[in-house]
Design brief:
The chain has 423 residues and is an alpha/beta fold. The chain has 13 helices and 12 strands. The structure holds nicotinamide-adenine-dinucleotide (NAD).
Length: 423
């Protein structure tokens, strides 16, 4: 099913939109519904003044895009990175709508971001930036309106600041306004590992389908942050062999496999560059690692890693997309031609938002679940969603990615028709 045409392959909004177009056409969506779902519901640009530690003021540009609230409140992370762009946030917001619909949880889609380099800012500067960003958005956010979460460059601490700032504005402790919080503040057990665990569950399903065994699977993981390192750690524990790893500083490959907990200690506790890890492996660039021999490739860093320029070099049999948008539409065609089994991002990395949903439920109930309960429910959601997508792909003779979009768009479209358009 070749041939999604995009003008600028590396514009993620164009990529997301092109896939939406294909799925919408296959579903024969009515014109009105199609238009409603194609465009975001609201977009805001913020100019955020922050007092820096040296006493000067700096103004940061930030965004929040609400794509859809048709099936529930907006849901989506906040990204702090130097290359944040409105088109990227738009694409990520739409992906959240489709992702929540693929795993059938009652949320819409949203995303936020601030152009900044968190690695070059102090903790106090980051706190002031996060608080002012939240304060500016205080009328937009809320447990029934729009619920942020962490993304690249933000984590539990930033979510605690979001919760506190919002609570100060509404004058009541409101834990359910944000997910990915520390456990002590209404966070969920299992949230930290959730996206990586979801990736592993998808890998398990994929190898089962292809008749492969965990201990015969070499895995390469690009990105060693929340998703990549947790995914690698859980997969190694489960019996997979992690032969390739990479982060922003570079990559390592070793046929012998890596000791992932030792690597996590090196990178996260000792804060040393990943490529200097003393546990062996050949040094290479963070891109080159993607093309080394393996059975499973897990891009879990940033967008546009597999493109028309390099997808031919992928050696994996299975691509499990931990990151959002790591593969461009032309790369999809190449991978399809090579027979690579693709678990698309809006399914593969949905474990995070699924446990975010569990966190929101627990916060609203004021009743918290055991970690085993969280993991069991996550397993149920991921397995049934995987099976639904793959079955849909078989029935409709489309790729797994287009199947996931079709399933999601159909769910949101049906909800929209039932609600009708308020006039
Ligand atoms: P993170 O900030 O914790 O980690 C990002 C990792 O990617 C770091 O190891 C960083 O060094 C590495 N990296 C950055 N640029 C790179 C590059 N050019 N090449 C190689 N490595 C690079 O972020 P995260 O939360 O793990 O998110 C990673 C991806 O997963 C993003 O696409 C994000 O949108 C997606 N995602 C995250 C979650 C979640 O729960 N955290 C959920 C769903 C999807």
């Amino acid at each position: 099913m070749a041939g999604i045409v995009v003008k600028n392959e590396l514009n993620v909004y164009e990529s997301a939109d092109a896939r939406f177009e294909v799925a919408a056409q296959k579903l024969s969506l009515e014109e009105g519904i199609y238009k409603f779902l194609k465009y975001p519901s609201k977009e805001i640009t913020l100019y955020i003044p922050v007092k820096m530690d040296n006493g000067t003021f700096q103004v940061f540009i930030g965004y929040r895009v609400l794509h859809s609230r048709v099936r529930g409140p907006g849901k989506g992370g906040i990204r702090f990175a130097p290359d944040v762009h409105l088109d990227e946030i738009r694409a990520l917001a739409a992906w959240m709508t489709w992702k929540c619909a693929v795993v059938n949880i009652p949320f819409g889609g949203a995303k936020g971001g601030v152009i900044c380099d968190p690695n070059k800012m102090s903790r106090t500067e980051l706190e002031r930036l996060t608080r002012r960003y939240t304060a500016e958005l205080s009328e937009w956010l809320g447990p029934e309106r729009d619920v942020p979460a962490p993304d690249v460059g933000t984590g539990e601490q930033a979510m605690a600041w979001v919760m506190d700032t919002f609570s100060m504005h509404v004058r009541q402790a409101t834990t359910a306004v944000v997910t990915g919080k520390p456990i002590e503040l209404g966070g969920s057990r299992g949230r930290r590992e959730a996206t990586g665990r979801g990736v592993m569950i998808c890998c398990d399903r994929a190898i089962h389908r292809l008749g492969m065994k965990r201990d015969a699977c070499r895995v390469i993981v690009q990105g060693f942050g929340n998703v990549g390192s947790m995914g690698a750690m859980l997969m190694q524990k489960a019996g997979y062999k992690i032969v390739g790893v990479a982060d922003i500083h570079g990559g390592l490959y070793s046929e012998k496999g890596f000791d992932v907990p030792a690597l996590m200690d090196w990178v996260h506790t000792q804060r040393k560059p990943l490529p200097d890890f003393p546990g062996g492996g050949a040094k290479m660039s963070q891109q080159e690692v993607l093309f080394q021999p393996c059975e499973i490739l897990v891009p879990a860093a940033v967008e546009n890693q597999l493109t028309s320029q390099n997808a031919q070099r992928v050696q994996a049999k299975i691509l499990c997309e931990g990151a959002n948008g790591p593969t461009t539409p032309p790369a999809d065609d190449i991978l399809e031609g090579k027979g690579v089994f693709v678990v698309p991002d809006i399914l593969c990395n949905a474990g995070g938002v699924t446990v975010s949903y569990f966190e929101w439920v627990q916060d609203r109930q004021g009743f918290f679940w055991r970690e085993s309960e969280v993991n069991e429910r996550l397993q149920d959601v991921m397995e049934s969603s995987f099976d639904e997508v793959v079955q849909y792909a078989d029935t409709h003779k489309v790729t797994n990615r287009i199947a996931a979009y079709m399933l999601a768009i159909n769910r949101v479209g049906t909800a929209l028709k039932l609600r009708g358009i308020y006039a």
